[in-house]
Specification:
The protein has 2 domains: 14-43; 46-234, 3-Layer(aba) Sandwich (Rossmann fold). Helices cover 39% and strands 16% of the residues. It contains 8 helices and 7 strands; from the N terminus they run αααβαβαββαβααββ. Strand 2, helix 5 and strand 3 form a beta-alpha-beta unit.
């Protein structure tokens, strides 16, 4: 895979064949059958990355911090779609960060990855986009609130976006399946910890509205049984 030209616009896969080719291309970057299979089917079946990329398309040259980046798949997806801004990925799992760095060194050396605990993340140097994709449930409620408040300080311009994808806690059958699946991810050692507390809509709204951000909640179930929502926050003009 070659690095995209800096002047190219964001492009999204718009056909099953293009999605399949992208899934094959990105999965081949990873070592081991398990990781390659995970990447391939996530790209094929999860609507997350196209949805987030669309949300960023009008400000693709802005810096982005991906909190809970794992093995770097979302940053690599963005760069494969010609995202122009610098990307900084943080995750507590050192082994995943090592895997992400190895891939970035050979394909996108402008992506920076660091092992970091969210509790000590300092948002002060960053102004731009922030993404929190499927990670809040692994934090206790008080840290979720604190992290959202800190992330909101990075959204300093109307074209900056704070984007969250998470399973929400509510009485639905989807929420029960989401909770069980997150525990299964710990059991197979894909995630280093078991989920602690799935956020509610109200717990997400409170710190972000207090920070003056406007929120949009969009169901992002796709073809999955999970209670996933895409939450996009921005600062009004």
């Amino acid at each position: 895979m070659h690095r995209p030209a800096a002047s190219s616009p964001v492009e999204l896969p718009d056909s099953p064949d293009r999605v399949r080719r992208l899934a094959k291309s990105l999965s081949r970057l990873y070592p081991g059958r398990f990781l390659r299979s995970y990447v391939y089917w996530k790209i094929r079946t999860d609507p997350l990355y196209p949805a987030v990329t669309r949300s960023l398309a009008d400000a693709q040259n802005q810096p982005l911090v991906d909190l809970g980046c794992g093995a770097g798949l979302f940053p690599f997806y963005l760069k494969s779609q010609h995202y122009l801004g610098p990307i900084h990925g943080l995750d507590i799992d050192d082994q995943k960060i090592i895997a992400a760095r190895t891939i970035a060194t050979h394909h996108w050396p402008d992506i920076d990855f660091q092992t970091s605990d969210f509790a000590t993340w300092n948002p002060a140097p960053h102004q731009g986009h922030v993404t929190l994709l499927d990670v809040l449930q692994y934090l206790p409620p008080e840290l979720q609130h604190d992290l959202l408040s800190r992330a909101a300080t990075c959204i300093t311009a109307p074209n900056h976006r704070l984007i969250i994808r998470n399973g929400l806690s509510d009485p639905s059958w989807r929420a029960r399946i989401t909770h069980s699946t997150d525990h299964f991810a710990r059991w197979i050692r894909w995630m280093p910890n078991s989920p602690l507390s799935h956020p509610t809509r109200e717990s997400l709204e409170a710190p972000l509205r207090a920070a003056g951000l406007h929120l949009i909640f969009t169901p992002l179930w796709g073809k999955t049984p999970f209670n996933n929502y895409l939450i996009t926050a921005h600062r009004p003009n």
